[in-house]
Write a structure and sequence with these properties.
With 295 residues, the chain is of the alpha/beta class. It has 2 domains: 91 residues, 434 Repressor (Amino-terminal Domain), CATH 1.10.260; 190 residues, Endonuclease, Chain A (2-Layer Sandwich). Helices cover 48% and strands 12% of the residues. The protein has a 6-stranded mixed beta sheet, sandwiched between helices. The chain is elongated and about 65 Å long.
């Protein structure tokens, strides 16, 4: 299922990625214990139609309702419950235009992705054309923005770069995001911003790969055809038992979210196949260093 937000100005229910993530997990819990929507509605003193809206991500969910449903469905793991509560709170903030990312209108369609990234535990990203945003230097990010040519006002590029750097704080925070990045060799050789910018970018990649929570692989030219040739994608994960992955893809005209279990599992298998044709991490870092020296 590709997720879309409805236009709030038209008076319709707004379904967000975060709320669909929360509703989908609660739906799976309910079905796993064999309960029906009217039973859940009774526990909340609500209607079955409201429960249906919750499970579709169409309405924000309060903390007491989330806890009540977890208790009803037999979920006793506090770590899982706290993650669901965090999803609910972040979704409510997202709907009220809160969160650090909303300081940056330059993020455009990335706002929903960044909100989800901020509470994720791990991300697997495949990038055939450029260095992933979480691993970009300021000069590289700036050159990418200039090259994209999508900014009517050049002054908006600097806030965009600032927002990209703010996202990277998760990699070194007290709750670090685990990042596994597979990058095609062509992205490492493309002269984005010129040789000096690329030397610094490749050096930064080597430094970031030294973090315990960051893994970098490279698919070399010699690997030939691979399952990722159709385009980039990222898999955002919550690693607690029973959690579901979300797949994010950007295309020129829109952002696509794949939220159901089947789509996420299929992209997980594609990612694994891409990684298998890539170089082992030590050899990948040796290649990055060799390209840096060539620059």
């Amino acid at each position: 299922m590709a997720g879309r937000e409805r236009d709030p100005d038209r008076g319709r229910t707004v379904s967000t990625v975060l709320a669909r993530r929360l509703g989908g997990e609660l739906l799976r819990m309910r079905e796993a214990c064999g309960m029906r929507q009217p039973q859940a509605a009774e526990a909340l003193s609500a209607t079955a139609s409201k429960v249906a809206k919750m499970e579709r991500g169409g309405v924000p969910m309060r903390d007491p309702d989330i806890r009540a449903l977890c208790h009803l469905y037999g979920q006793a793991d506090e770590a899982v419950i706290e993650r669901l509560l965090t999803l609910g709170r972040t979704d409510r903030e997202r709907r009220k235009a809160k969160g650090w990312w909303n300081q940056y209108p330059q993020l455009l369609a990335m706002v929903e992705y960044v909100a989800l990234e901020d509470i994720a535990t791990s991300i697997r990203t495949w990038q055939p054309a450029f260095v992933p945003g979480l691993l970009q230097t300021p000069d590289y990010a700036r050159a990418v923005a200039v090259g994209a040519g999508s900014w009517e006002d050049p002054s908006e590029i600097e806030p965009f770069v600032e927002a990209r750097l703010a996202r990277q704080a998760r990699l070194r925070s007290d709750r670090p995001l685990a990042l596994w990045a597979v990058i095609h060799e062509s992205a490492l050789r493309q002269l984005v911003g010129g040789r000096q910018v690329m030397r610094e970018q490749l050096g930064h990649l080597l430094d970031m790969a030294g973090l315990d929570t960051v893994q970098v692989q490279v698919v070399p030219f010699l690997a030939g055809a691979n399952p990722g040739m159709t385009g980039a994608f990222s898999i955002v994960s919550f690693t607690e038992p029973g959690a579901l992955d979300v797949v994010h893809m950007d295309v020129p005209s829109s952002t696509i979210w794949l939220e159901n279990e089947e789509d996420a599992a299929r992209h997980g298998r594609i990612y694994d196949r891409i990684a298998r044709v890539g170089l082992a991490e030590r050899k990948a870092l040796d290649l990055i260093d060799a390209i840096r020296k060539e620059m």
